[in-house]
Structure formats: C-alpha cells, structure tokens
C-alpha cells in the first residue's frame, strides 16, 4: 500500500522509504546477488545457485528486518510482501519465472500481506478467484457506490439502440480512460490474430485519435495467451525528458475480450509512470467493465 505512504507522508518521505528499503536489501545479500528496482515500489532479486527454500530464508530475513526498522516511525510499521519462484523448478524461461514470482507476490498481498510466498502450480487459479471483486468492492462506501454506478452506466450504454457500435465503443473508451486516469486508450478489434480496426482517444479529448502508439509485443501476448496484464513497458517510450534524460516509460493495461473462446478485441490503456502506475484492483475493475461491453460483439 505504498500509495498511502506518499499520500499521507508526502513523496519525499516515500523516496526516503524506498532508499532505506534498498539499503536494507543491499546490506543483507551476497556480492553475487543482483538487486534492482523493478518499478514503483517493487524490487526484484536474482539469487544465483539458490533454491526456493534458500530464497524463502532470505525473503523472511529481509521482511523481518524491514518491519523491525520502523521506517515510518515507531507508531507505524512498514511491511513488505515477497513472491519467490525458482529455476528450473518453476520455469526455465526468464519472463515466465518473473511472472510466477509476481503471482506469488500477489498471493501474499491478498492473504494478509507482510509475508513471503513460494510459487505453487495451482496459484494462478487461487489468485484469480481471490481477485474477482478486487477493485469493485473496496469497503469504502463512496468509492463502491461510484464503481457500481459506472457498471450500470455501461449496461445502459450497451442496451442503447439509437447509437452505432462505433459510438458505443468510443463512449465506453472515454469512460474507462477517465476512471483509470489513463493518458490514452484504444479498443483494438482482432480478426484471427491480426489487427482489424483501432478506435482510440486521449484523456479529456472528445475527438477520435488518428492513431495510437502501442507495444505490439504486449498486444500479441494478450491475443495468444488470451490473458490480460498490467505492467511497465520498459521497451517502448514516447520521448526522453530533456532535463533528466530519462525515458517517458509507460504503465500499461491490456485486457482481451473473449467471445466463444476467440479474442475479438483488446483494450489497451497507458499512462506515464511519472503520473501513475496501474495496480491489480484497477486492472480487475477495468476487465470487469470490458466483459460487460462484450455483449455487443
């Protein structure tokens, strides 16, 4: 819940917390271990010649040290959740290995947090079932009411008979961009595995966007796997900051629309990580809205 740290204590305190966590990690690993900031408040560690139990031992050591360090003061504990996947036990492919560590991390977050979890083969199904109401029902009455009202708006839009499908898609896209605070979004119609049509627009813009810059590899992965994701696109970026010389990396959501076991369309949303990073509740809520829209396909 790192966003709450920034909201409550300010971004300078948030930066300080990240630096302190990084220091704790670096002070407790071997010279052969590789540690990096993976995006936002996520860190990733590569531990050569270490099995899953060895990873678990280090994870628990780091978790306890971070909690006991009282990085937010003595009255507020800052904790971390950790996911672990090992080669070759869980996968021989690097991207798949990271994805499985991420699933274990998400499982830890959804099961009381402040714990480390080793990936298990049935975890994908467990995570999916846990995730079903994430982002829709939060416990905040105002937020929950807004979410339900938006779902009803989408139902009403789908049922309208006096506007074309293209207008429905465009209106839906505008609402989803607004809800997710995206910079730009598109609905990409798919025929077979090829792009047939792209409807796209920018935030706060009532005009159809002529084209949209999207990562074709992420789109193809979404189509082939029939599964969406939210992640940082470290490969494609729109520009480079003239002052900091840092690329304008994008946080991306992809969601497939599956009808009769075929991907009919993909929803693609992006926003600069300078402004925001998408999270699991946002992804899940957007996916639910896109499922409602599938009625018109």
Outline the secondary-structure elements.
Layout: H1 2-9, H2 11-27, E1 34-39, E2 42-46, H3 52-68, E3 82-84, H4 94-110, E4 116-118, H5 123-130, H6 141-159, H7 165-180, E5 184-191, E6 194-202, H8 216-225, E7 229-240, E8 247-259, E9 262-272, H9 280-293
Helix pairs in contact: 1-2, 4-5, 6-7, 6-9, 7-9
Question: Could you characterize the architecture of this molecule?
Answer:
- With about 300 residues, the chain is α+β, with helices and mostly antiparallel strands.
- The chain is about 40% helix and about 25% strand.
- The protein has nine helices and nine strands.
- The chain has helices spanning about 1-10, 10-25, 50-70, 95-110, 125-130, 140-160, 165-180, 215-225, 280-295; strands spanning about 35-40, 40-45, 80-85, 115-120, 185-190, 195-200, 230-240, 245-260, 260-270.
- A five-stranded antiparallel β-sheet has the order 6-5-9-8-7, with helices on both faces. Strands 1-2 form a two-stranded antiparallel ribbon. A two-stranded parallel sheet has the order 3-4.
- A hairpin with a 2-residue loop joins strand 8 and strand 9 (about 260-270).
- Helix 1 packs across helix 2 and helix 6 (about 140-160) runs antiparallel to helix 7 (about 165-180).
Mass-distribution shape: globular
Distance between the termini: 37 Å
> Helical stretch count?
9
Q: What integer value in Å does the Rg equal?
A: 21 Å
How many individual β-strands?
9
Q: What class, by secondary structure content?
A: alpha+beta
Low-confidence stretches: none
What's the overall average pLDDT, rounded? Answer: 89
Beta percentage is 15-25%
Task: State the helicity in percent bands.
Answer: 40-55%
Biggest β-sheet description: 5 strands, antiparallel
Largest sheet, spatial ordering of strands: 6-5-9-8-7
Element order, helices and strands? HHEEHEHEHHHEEHEEEH
């Amino acid at each position: 819940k790192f966003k709450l740290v920034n909201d409550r204590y300010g971004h300078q305190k948030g930066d300080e917390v990240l630096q302190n966590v990084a220091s704790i990690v670096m002070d407790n690993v071997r010279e052969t271990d590789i540690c990096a900031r993976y995006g936002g408040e996520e860190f990733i560690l590569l531990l050569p010649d270490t099995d899953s139990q060895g990873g678990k031992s280090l994870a628990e050591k780091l978790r306890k040290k971070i909690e006991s360090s009282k990085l937010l003061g003595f009255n507020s504990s800052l904790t971390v959740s950790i996911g672990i996947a090992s080669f070759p036990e869980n996968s021989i492919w690097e991207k798949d290995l990271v994805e499985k560590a991420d699933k274990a991390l998400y499982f830890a977050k959804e099961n009381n947090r402040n714990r480390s979890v080793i990936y298990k083969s049935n975890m994908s199904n467990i995570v999916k079932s846990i995730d079903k109401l994430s982002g829709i029902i939060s416990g905040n009455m105002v937020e929950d009411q807004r979410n339900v009202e938006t779902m009803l708006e989408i139902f009403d839009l789908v049922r309208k008979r006096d506007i074309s499908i293209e207008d429905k898609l465009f209106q839906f896209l505008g609402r989803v961009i607004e809800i997710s605070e995206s910079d730009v979004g598109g609905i990409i119609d798919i025929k077979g595995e090829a792009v047939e049509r792209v409807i796209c627009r920018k935030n706060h813009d009532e005009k159809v966007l002529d084209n949209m810059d999207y990562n074709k590899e992420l789109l193809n992965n979404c189509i082939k796997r029939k599964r969406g994701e939210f992640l940082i696109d470290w490969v494609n970026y729109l520009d480079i900051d003239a002052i900091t010389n840092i690329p304008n990396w994008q946080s991306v959501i992809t969601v497939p629309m599956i009808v009769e076991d075929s991907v009919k369309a993909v929803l693609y949303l992006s926003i600069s990580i300078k402004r925001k990073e998408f999270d699991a509740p946002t992804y899940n809520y957007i996916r639910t809205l896109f499922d409602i829209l599938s009625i018109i396909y």
